[in-house]
Every structure is written in C-alpha cells, then in structure tokens.
Design brief:
By secondary structure, the chain is an alpha+beta fold. The chain has 26 helices and ten strands. It starts with a helix and ends in a 43-residue tail after the last helix.
Length: 623
C-alpha cells in the first residue's frame, strides 16, 4: 500500500493545484518581507539560499515525506559506491551538500524539486508539439533541438547573472546558450537518447598554464549497430550542416540534416557552411577536431541510489529516467571514437553559485515566479505546465488558462488596494502571533512592506500577461496558424515597444521563424540580417545566408550584415519595422481561428479590452 501511495504522490507532481498556488504565493510574500526586513521576520527564510530562491509547493513537501515513509518500509539497500568519474570533479564541488549526501537513503527538499524537474522534462520530451510524431531517434533529436531554440529565449551570460537549473530554464522559458543545451540534453535523456557537450581547446592557453576548454556543440549519440555522434550548435542555434547540404521543405522552411563528428573530422571543409565567409570563419574551423573533449551531464540527482530505486518502480506513463551512469556512458561515447570523456562541471558550479546567492539575488529569483501565482486560480502557472505537457486546446488546457492570465489593465489597478490589505493583514497576524502587542513603528513597517509588494505585484501581473501572449504565439506557430502567431508575437507581446518587453528577443526570433515557415522567405531573411535584438550569435546571419542561397541569391559579405548583436542598452533603439509593416498582415479580426480565443484589439493603444465574460468562448478547438 505504501508503495502504491508513492506512485500516486509522484503523480501529483504532474498537475498544479489551486491551494498549492495560493500557499506558494503566501509563503513567497513572507519571504519577500523577510528579505526586506530580516530582523522583523526571523526564521522565515530557509538557511540554504538555493531553496530560499524557489517557491515551495506544499505538494513537494508531501511527496518527499511519503517517499521517506516508503524508504522506512524497505530493506536496507546494498552498499553503495559513487561513480568513479565523480572523483574527477574539483574538491570544492565535491563538498556541496547534495554531493556529500549522495549515498543517504532518505530524500531531501532539494530532491523534491529535482523529481519535479524530471517529471516536467519527461512530459515535455513526450509532447508531439516538441518531439513530433516520429519515433526515429534522429527525428526526435532534431525536433527537440528546434523546439528548445524556439521556446527558450536566449539570455546574455555575464559574471553577475544568476545561473539557472534546467527546471527553471524550461518553466520560465529563457536561459543562456549552455543552459538551453543542458535542458536539451536532459530532454533527450527522458527519451532514452544519450547526448553530451563537446568542447575544444581554446586558441590561447589560460594565464595559469592550465588547460582551457571552450564548449562547442551538443553531440547526440544515435544508431543501433553503429553509433554516430550528430552535432548541434546551441550558440548558433543551428545543427552543424552535414554533407547532404542545405535543403528546405515544401513550405520553404529550412530542413537541415546534422553532420556527424566523423564526417566533419574527415572533411573539415563541411564547417565552412557554418561561417559567414572567408572574413568571418566558424571558430571551430581553427581547431584540431581530434582534440575534442566530451563532457557528460551527471547532476547529483542522477547519481543518487535513492532515485534509482524509485525509477525501477515506475511503470507505464509514469516511467521516467532518474539515473545516469557516467562511467557506462563514457564507454558508449568512446566506442563512437571519443577518447577524452569527463564530467561536465556546469551543473555543479551552478549549484555552488546558487547556494551562495546574496539576499538581493534571492529576491530577484523569487520575483520571477510571482506572475505565475498572482492571478486568482494561478492561470499562468497552470497554463505553463499544461503547455509543456503538450495539453493545449481543450477547455481546461493551456490556451484557456493563458487567456485567463491576460487581465484588463484596469483590473490590475483595481485589485492593487485589496492585495495591499491582504498582505498587511497576513504580516500583521504573523507579527502578532501568540498575543504579542504590535508597536506603532512596526505597523508603519508593515504598511510600507505591503505597499511595496502591491506595486510589485501589479508590475509582475502585467509581465505575466505579456508572457501569456508570447506563449500563445508559440502555440499558434506549432498549430501552423501563422497569421495568428504574428499577431500574438508582434502586436500583443510587443505592445509596449521592444525596449520595454522582456520577451522582445524571443518574439522577434519567432516572428522571423514564422515568416520562414509560412513561405515568406524575403521577410525572414531581412529579419535575420537586420534585427539587432536577435541573440543567437552569428547563427541568424548564417540562417539568412542559407535561405538566400536556396533562392539562388548572392550571399552578402559579413561587413554588409549586422555584427554580433550587442545588449539592448549598448546600442541605438531599433525602429519597430513590424508596426510599419502592419499593413502586410491581416487585421486581428481577420486572423481569428478556432484555436485562438482572441479579444478585440485596438491598434495603436497600449491596452487590450477583453470581451465580456459571457461573450468569451471557453474552449479553443484544435485547428
């Protein structure tokens, strides 16, 4: 019975519950107050900055508790030894709590989040909108790579940026190039496909004389009798093009079969397809590919014997991968021709940095989750999880919840005073617990904190509305409703101007992809070549060159194209060509589809008026 209840509890990780979202919002409000006034609200924040930066669903606590009850009913596991490759990590990473506790039998709060991550990765990797219909492993790998590029907006990396774990990258929908690659590798793992990062020696040695490696691409190990390594460059956002050349499907959308490592090693000239010409070669062309180093993903959760025991007991639709054997993986990669195979340290350096976050960064990470919980019923939170699961079109699936996450702006303003009062009452009750008398100066502090949180919530609710619009655009792309996708991405997401919208980079990239997929190749080429907000390094210029060559056109010289995109604050504001070319697309009322539930839109205004509730459709049918 206990084992059965464990399976039922793990199933709870698959769906968000109303009371859980409400509890998360309340606990997050308390953490905000404690971060602002630590002396006033002691004992609220977890001592671990990593756990303090994540909202804590009550469901996770229950899952961990039930798992530990199950552990107590089992026989003691056999003596466990860590994977030998773990010892190759630097000593400071081996001292991380989640590494030091690998062998313990009981589950931790950190394990709860990692189990949730595995569930979300499994569901996303199974969704047809992400992986496609084919069971062919190479097709799955290509589809998941393309889905990752379109659905995870590229973040700039910098020393002061807070690094993310894969579940954050997947759920929040943005991450750096190598956070996207990390997520992609784990998506493939849930489909039973091995993948690793390939790195090459830097052109110049590190000042200390130590070896310096530069990540190059993700190598996906595919094949039945003879395994081959297919190459995908997450920085350019493109497969490394193989000898079969650059092709397009019937609609004109690029269809690139990736090269294998053997192919580019035997014929390095293949890499010329990834360059912008003789003046701007692909950096890997300058390196001896025989010096490639393989970096295996082996996060702590996949090395724990306790999660391996859970994996062995999951059946049917609940099956998921919770274990990785890096030493065994290394054998497979070496059999494919790789000699130097190591552990990738990114998962471990990320954990180390997150555990040392200062309070301001903890606050920032918590704030990123508030838009998902701020509306009654947490529609953005539910919509996002259902979107990742590929549950899109029915009445209680992603589209319906995303639409509910897009309130009128006047509604947001009207709700602020009530929210401020609710926060004040909750904090007051906490301070006054046990009959303690609240001092006047404490009341003033509570008022200030509650006002700050009300203002912040209003801003984050608007941010949530824009996120919902952006993700609805991605859904319309997947449904091949390209006019609707352009409307959501170009008008509703960017309604305040690109410089004020977090999703501008992803919106512009997906607008270009939409034009490409819909056969409007000239518009796509222009967007890839001229939009300074696109962040896939030179990958967009390479993509434009490939499209231009398919048209038989001349390739522009690199000097005639835009150089690598700079951060928005470092460059002049770009004219919004989308608005100028609005006449090239249909009006919103002409682009409505059965899959949309679009509201009437007033072009040129900065707010969108919803229809009356009784006029709204509650179900979006699949096109």
């Amino acid at each position: 019975m206990v084992e059965r209840s464990v399976q039922l509890r793990l199933r709870e990780l698959e769906s968000p519950w109303d009371n859980d979202c409400q509890e998360m919002l309340r606990s997050t409000q308390q953490r905000f107050a404690a971060l602002r006034q630590p002396k006033q609200f002691p004992g609220i924040l977890p001592s671990d900055a990593l756990l303090a930066s994540w909202p804590e669903p009550d469901m996770l606590r229950q899952v961990v508790s039930r798992l530990n009850q199950w552990v107590d009913t089992q026989e003691a596991p056999p003596t466990w030894k860590p994977d030998p490759m773990l010892a190759t990590l630097p000593a400071d990473l081996l001292r991380l709590p989640m590494v030091d506790n690998l062998g313990q039998v009981h589950f931790t709060a950190y394990d709860g989040y990692m189990l949730m991550e595995a569930v979300w990765l499994r569901d996303a990797a199974r969704a047809k909108s992400a992986a496609g219909d084919s069971v062919d492993e190479l097709s799955v790998a290509r589809n998941l790579f393309d889905w990752t590029l379109r659905n995870i907006q590229t973040d700039y990396d910098s020393p002061d940026r807070v690094p993310q774990l894969p579940w954050e990258t997947l759920f929040l929908g943005h991450g750096t190039n190598w956070e996207r690659a990390w997520t992609y590798i784990l998506l493939l793992r849930q489909r039973g496909i091995d993948a690793a990062v390939l790195a090459l020696p830097e052109e110049s040695a590190a000042p200390s004389g130590k070896e310096s490696l530069k990540p190059w691409c993700v190598a996906v190990l595919i094949g039945e009798k003879e395994k081959k390594l297919y190459l995908f460059d997450p920085k350019l956002g493109l497969p490394v093009a193989g000898p079969r050349g650059i092709k397009a499907d019937k609609s004109g959308h690029l269809d690139i079969e990736p090269a294998t490592l053997d192919e580019v090693t035997a014929n390095p000239k293949l890499l010329e397809a990834m360059s912008l010409g003789a003046d701007a070669p692909y950096w890997a062309q300058k390196v001896n590919l025989k010096q490639v180093v393989t970096l295996l993903e082996a996060s702590p959760i996949y090395l724990e014997p306790r999660t391996k025991r859970i994996e062995a007991r999951l059946t049917g639709q609940q099956r998921m991968v919770l274990n990785a054997e890096p030493t065994e993986q290394a054998v497979h990669f070496k059999a494919a021709g790789l000699r130097d195979v190591r552990l990738w340290d990114l998962p471990y350096t990320t954990l180390k940095r997150r555990m040392a976050l200062p309070p301001k960064d903890v606050f920032e990470r918590l704030a990123a989750f508030v838009p998902f919980m701020s509306r009654p019923g947490a529609p953005l939170y539910k919509g996002r999880i259902l979107h990742l699961k590929g549950k899109i079109f029915n009445e209680k699936e992603a589209i319906a919840y995303y639409q509910r996450a897009r309130p009128r702006y006047s509604t947001v303003e009207d709700e602020a005073p009530k929210y401020q009062k609710d926060v004040y009452d909750a904090l007051y009750a906490q301070v006054a617990a046990g009959g303690r008398q609240v001092k006047p100066e404490e009341e003033n502090v509570l008022k200030q904190v509650s006002i700050q949180q009300a203002v912040q919530l209003a801003k984050l609710t608007v941010a949530g509305k824009l996120a919902a619009s952006y993700w609805l655009g991605l859904i319309q792309y997947d449904a091949k409703e390209y006019d609707a996708a352009l409307d959501y991405l170009g008008i509703r997401t960017l309604q305040f101007g690109a410089e004020h919208v977090f999703w501008a980079t992803g919106a512009y990239y997906n607008i270009a992809r939409t034009w490409e997929a819909s056969g409007q190749r000239k518009k796509a080429i222009e967007a890839y070549e001229t939009n300074l907000l696109l962040r896939n390094d030179n990958g967009n210029l390479v993509r434009a060159r490939w499209l231009r060559e398919l048209d038989g056109g001349q390739t522009k010289k690199p000097a005639e194209m835009k150089t690598e995109a700079k951060k928005p604050e470092e460059k002049k504001k770009e004219d919004n060509k989308l608005e100028e070319k609005r006449t090239d697309t249909k009006k919103p009322e002409e682009t409505k589809t059965k899959a949309q539930q679009l509201e009437d839109t007033k072009i040129g205004e900065k707010k969108i008026e919803d229809k009356k509730p009784e006029e709204k459709k509650t179900e979006a049918k699949k096109p």
